[in-house]
Design a protein that fits this description.
Elements (H helix, E strand, L loop, with lengths): L15 H7 L51 E5 L9 H14 L3 E7 L25 H11 L3 E7 L2 E4 L10 H5 L22 E3 L5 H17 L4 E5 L13 H11 L10 H25 L4 E7 L10 H4 L3 H4 L5 H6 L5 E5 L7 H16 L10 E7 L5 H13 L3 E5 L6 H4 L5 H12 L20 E8 L8 E6 L2 E7 L5 E4 L5 E7 L2 E7 L3 E4 L3 E2 L14
Parallel strand pairs: 1-2, 1-10, 2-3, 3-6, 6-7, 7-8, 8-9, 9-10, 11-17, 11-18
Antiparallel strand pairs: 4-5, 11-14, 12-13, 12-15, 15-16
Pfam family, one: GHL10
Protein name: Family 10 glycosylhydrolase
InterPro entries: Divisome_Glycosyl_Hydrolase, GH, GHL10
């Protein structure tokens, strides 16, 4: 998602003939896009094209029966890089505008850069002179949105923790305690040469155990202290560039857990797979810790969709994408294993470029094709679209195509609802009115009010930990039901493991020669006692000739 210093103004002109072409049924072609948001590469410039009147929208195709989970989601991202959440009056205006627009869910930026627009998180509050003392934006927006019948998802930047142009001044902030000058106590993701800035941003390394624990507890603190309907994990990945993870602590863990010596090359596939697993482990731990508190909580991720999409169902092709190989997100696996309930694609494309229009439809099709889980449930899927890169007609066309495909829709963002607002050529209120006019037209996704009342597909799970060894991570854990293996996972750096898509019933866990049987409930997360593992030292080699 975009906000603040990470966004550069991009020109855009209307491409009505493309909108007419896109009014046809969904084109299932390849696609993934470059975006102009913090943590992502910049979108391509759009060539100038003639302007024309927007097309008259055709009626929506009949929705599938029954509707897929999440198909009724109509959402709006509310970012914290400008006005909208900083005072009670701003919150009231934001909620009123969202209700008038007709959305049913607000994705509210809560933890922005390891600081919170709230007062009861494990991370410090945002330091901003525009925030009145004692004011809790997250509590206020949740109360007001709930009163209007809207859900609130607390949006969290997980690994992205700082921007050097606007540092948090609280001495308890992670950059002051575990930043670049903290020596062995630094938690930052680093390149092979030790540098840590990606542009002006700093990121935590998911491979550092203490950093992973810090990130987990930040999200859990929101779940514990606020009546939000869900959490959304943003920047749940490594930075762009395939060259991160070279902190000495991360390398030491990698060597201990894999038995490989030396410093891995940036393109080493074993190294990439190990780092990718650290991100998945972090998602798993956050989800199960959150569901242990509130099984009815929606856990969402804002996921990467760079450039050309794989064909529907083609996981082999997905593993050749930058999503999987560069930023190390395996979100199809997160969906399959029940680690996220809702995948909101950051499908930030511009229909003015024909290839990007195809990229948009291709990523939607691929995500829908991989939502099935082994327990018979399905992950919910929504298309997140870049309102800030497009004119209102394009936003409406993309939202309409997404809804026709059976997905939900989320727009980025309330503060920059059109390319003209983003480029400072139009006031935000004018842009919002323009977007409302097209999205609420006959046959369009916000024509009539919809409630999103689905329950999340993951409502139970199992969470445990192995202890008693200096290297508890990267151990295979099996779940057995009915005398057969039904799932496998790997332990994380602290020895945690878990499962989120198993049927209820008696389950046996086996790891490193230990086993424990328990019962997975219909709802809730069962916590197993710590399993003590002892690593047997290898037998010495026999003398030569014996």
């Amino acid at each position: 998602m975009c906000g603040g210093a990470g966004c550069a103004s991009l020109p855009l002109t209307t491409m009505t003939f493309l909108l007419l072409r896109r009014a046809a049924p969904l084109l299932l072609t390849s696609a993934l896009a470059l975006t102009a948001v913090p943590g992502q590469v910049a979108a391509q410039e759009v060539p100038p094209t003639p302007e024309a009147a927007p097309p008259t929208p055709a009626p929506l195709a009949s929705a599938p029966a029954p509707l897929a989970s999440g198909a009724n989601l109509r959402g709006l991202w509310i970012d914290a890089f400008g006005p909208g959440l900083k005072t009670r009056a701003q919150v009231t205006q934001t909620v009123n505008d969202a209700a008038r627009l007709g959305v049913n869910t607000l994705f509210v930026q809560a933890i922005r850069r390891a600081d919170c627009l709230c007062l009861k998180a494990s991370v410090p509050a945002v330091t901003d002179p525009d925030l009145p003392a004692g004011f809790d934006p997250l509590r206020e927006v949740t109360a007001q949105a709930h009163a209007r019948g809207m859900r609130v998802i607390a949006w969290v930047s997980v690994t992205g923790v700082a921007n050097t142009t606007v540092p948090n001044s609280n001495p308890a902030h992670v950059m002051r305690l575990h930043g670049p000058d903290a020596g062995a106590n630094s938690w930052l993701a680093r390149r092979p040469n030790g540098t840590w800035l990606e542009g002006r941003d700093a990121w935590l390394d998911a491979g550092i155990p203490a950093a992973a624990e810090y990130m987990t507890q930040a999200v859990v603190s929101l779940v514990r202290n606020y009546p939000v309907d869900g959490v959304q994990l943003d920047r749940i990945r490594y930075p762009d560039g395939e060259v991160w993870g070279y902190d000495a602590k991360t390398l030491a863990r990698y060597r201990a857990e894999t038995g490989r010596a030396g410093t891995p090359a940036t393109g080493d596939p074993v190294w990439a797979a190990w780092k990718r697993q650290q991100v998945t482990n972090l998602v798993r731990r956050i989800t199960l810790e959150s569901k242990a508190l509130r099984p009815d909580l929606w856990v969402s991720a804002a996921t990467i969709t760079y450039q050309t999409a794989p064909r529907a169902g083609d996981l082999v092709a997905f593993r050749r994408t930058r999503t999987y190989g560069d930023v190390l997100q395996d979100w199809p696996e997160w969906m399959r294993a029940g680690l996220i309930d809702l995948n909101v694609l950051m499908n930030y494309k511009r229909d003015a470029l024909p290839e990007q229009a195809d990229w948009f439809d291709g990523w939607n099709a691929f995500a829908l094709s991989v939502r099935a889980r082994p327990d018979g449930a399905q992950a919910a899927v929504a298309a997140g679209t870049a309102m800030y890169l497009n004119d209102p007609a394009v936003t409406a066309a993309q939202a309409r195509r997404s809804v026709q495909a059976g997905m939900g829709w989320v727009g980025y963002s309330y503060r920059t609802p059109t390319a003209d607002v983003y480029g400072q050529r139009q006031a935000a209120g004018q842009g919002l009115n323009a977007v409302q006019a097209v999205l609420s037209a006959p046959g369009m996704p916000l024509e009539r009010p919809l409630r999103w009342t689905d329950a999340p597909p993951t409502v139970r799970g199992l969470l445990g930990r192995v202890t008693g060894t200096a290297a508890p991570g990267n151990r295979t854990v099996q779940a057995w039901q009915g005398g057969q293996v039904v799932a496998e996972a790997l332990t994380d750096a602290l020895g945690y493991y878990g499962f989120a898509a198993l049927p209820p019933g008696k389950t046996e866990v086996r790891v490193s020669g230990q086993r424990w049987a328990d019962t997975i409930p219909e709802r809730g997360v069962v916590r197993l006692p710590d399993l003590l593992v002892r690593d047997t030292p290898p037998l010495p080699a026999l003398p030569a000739g014996r």
